[in-house]
């Protein structure tokens, strides 16, 4: 097994060195292969997502399959343009010369993916790596075992398996992979392991993209369309894998005066979405495994946060937890100290909405920050004052669907970004190329510097 893993990596490196992955035709053929896989294998993919997470079919389509398909189509449409060297101006001191930036593939890249969107988070970086002309090893998450083995089975049927390989495994296997030398590592997951990945990459001076998480705040002003705001918050939280999403709202901040109205509206929306007994709803994903269930149970049961104002039902056998809202939990409670990554949503209250800025800035920089308001001045102030991987006004989560926006964190929520052209760039080296002829000698350039400048 160990030997076959090493042999697989060796083969990938040899194929890259042989130039197999560089031609535009090869890249386009692989992208078409991924697209075909996402189209022809929809049923198998939906089944795997349901087996791993109880993910509703609609979420599987909208949040995973369709995003993969549109990433492939976008890359296919733009591939030639992205690959083209970009001419840049030349300075007079370099006269005569021309200059360009030539994107080149980095070589052999390792993609380590997470369990919560196990198709999307595996294939979306792979699409970027292929478009940029690299050989790729994909290590899916053992936390989503059905998708991991499905990818291992399917991908070689649709793409060139000599240059794109799926290597399955858990911590032991990933550690072994990380000990090898890569030309880029792309990791999605928690920040504790992010540090492990960064340390392993540093040993070989390998650049790494870290797509991590954090606590994404949602600030809600009192001038909003309450029903729409509540629906969009609920969709971004519980409608995205039941809160197990990196950009899901982690907590809300609103004013004391407005909190009861917001809470009422959220309750109404949730009852409409998931019925009186959400544990029976087929539209709500389950918690991924017993260990995460235990972690979330611990957050719910912490004495300090006993103020559940909505929900709270859970079923350990089925690994299901209902949408659950807390009001005014202490800032030093575990639920406010760690990323929740599940269906629990605390609402914090402040006197004035501007107090939310200080609160957010006292915490680690989030992957996404959301503000609901009709006040454009407040939006400007929020944009200026809050550092976050991404920012979205009057909605949650959907900024990730725009391929013209980079997707990634800042500070503890990650480093590097991808999506659209940013994916191509993440897996390319931008080579600086200057071209001169033999004219244009500047005598002052050559020693002896102090001697009269004679023609040389
Ligand atoms: P996970 O358990 O699937 O782990 C991620 C990957 O790390 C897996 O492939 C796993 O094999 C590997 N891994 C785990 N322990 C390791 C170790 N000790 N050494 C080497 N590799 C190891 O996923 P997770 O970490 O539970 O994912 C949830 C976290 O990921 C959350 O913090 C979430 O916010 C974040 N996340 C971020 C994004 C993003 O795009 N920024 C997307 C999804 C999830």
Automatic annotation (TrEMBL):
The keyword Ligase does not apply. One of its GO terms (molecular function) is aldehyde dehydrogenase (NAD+) activity. Keywords: NAD, Oxidoreductase. It catalyses: an aldehyde + NAD(+) + H2O = a carboxylate + NADH + 2 H(+). Residues 7-433 form the Aldehyde dehydrogenase domain. The active site is at 211, 246. One of its GO terms (cellular component) is cytoplasm. GO terms for biological process: aldehyde metabolic process; response to abscisic acid. InterPro entries: Ald_DH/histidinol_DH, Ald_DH_C, Ald_DH_N, Aldehyde_DH_dom, Aldehyde_DH_NAD(P). Belongs to the aldehyde dehydrogenase family. This is Aldehyde dehydrogenase.
């Amino acid at each position: 097994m160990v030997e076959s893993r090493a042999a697989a990596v060796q083969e990938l490196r040899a194929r890259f060195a042989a130039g197999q992955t560089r031609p535009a035709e090869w890249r386009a053929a692989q992208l078409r292969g991924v697209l075909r896989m996402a189209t022809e294998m929809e049923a198998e993919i939906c089944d795997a997502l349901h087996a791993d997470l109880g993910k509703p079919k609609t979420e599987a389509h909208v949040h995973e399959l369709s995003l993969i398909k549109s990433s492939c189509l976008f890359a296919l449409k733009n591939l030639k343009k992205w690959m083209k060297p970009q001419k840049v101006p030349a300075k007079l001191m370099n006269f005569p010369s021309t200059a360009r930036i030539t994107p080149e593939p980095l070589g052999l890249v390792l993609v380590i993916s997470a369990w919560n969107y196990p198709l999307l988070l595996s294939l979306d970086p792979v699409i970027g790596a292929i478009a940029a002309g690299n050989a790729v090893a994909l290590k899916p998450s053992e936390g989503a075992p059905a998708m991991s083995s499905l990818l291992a089975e399917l991908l070689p049927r649709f793409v060139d398996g000599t240059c794109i390989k799926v290597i399955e495994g858990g911590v032991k296997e990933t550690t072994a992979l990380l000990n090898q030398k890569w030309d880029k590592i792309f990791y999605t997951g928690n920040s504790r392991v992010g540090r492990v990945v960064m340390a392993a990459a540093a040993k070989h001076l390998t650049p790494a993209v870290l797509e991590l998480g954090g606590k994404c705040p949602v600030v809600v002003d009192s001038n909003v369309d309450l029903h729409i705001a509540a629906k969009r918050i609920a969709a971004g939280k519980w409608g995205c894998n039941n809160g197990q999403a990196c950009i899901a709202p982690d907590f809300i901040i609103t004013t004391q005066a407005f909190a009861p109205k917001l809470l009422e509206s959220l309750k109404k929306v949730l009852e409409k979405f998931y019925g009186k007994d959400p544990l029976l709803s087929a539209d709500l994903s389950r918690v991924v495994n017993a260990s995460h269930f235990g972690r979330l149970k611990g957050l719910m049961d912490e004495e300090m946060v006993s103020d559940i104002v909505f929900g709270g039902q859970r079923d350990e056998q089925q690994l299901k937890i209902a949408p659950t809202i807390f009001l005014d939990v202490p800032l030093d409670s575990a639920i406010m100290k760690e990323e929740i990554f599940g269906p629990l949503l605390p609402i914090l209250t402040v006197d004035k909405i501007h107090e939310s800025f200080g609160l957010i800035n006292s915490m680690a920089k989030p992957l996404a920050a959301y503000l609901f308001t009709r006040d454009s001045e407040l939006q400007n102030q929020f944009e200026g004052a809050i550092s976050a991987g991404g920012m979205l006004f009057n909605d949650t989560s959907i900024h990730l669907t725009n391929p013209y926006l980079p997707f990634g964190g800042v500070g503890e929520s990650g480093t590097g970004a991808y999506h659209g052209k940013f994916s191509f760039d993440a897996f390319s080296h931008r080579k600086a190329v200057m071209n001169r002829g033999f004219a244009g000698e500047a005598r002052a350039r050559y020693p002896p510097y102090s001697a009269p400048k004679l023609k040389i």
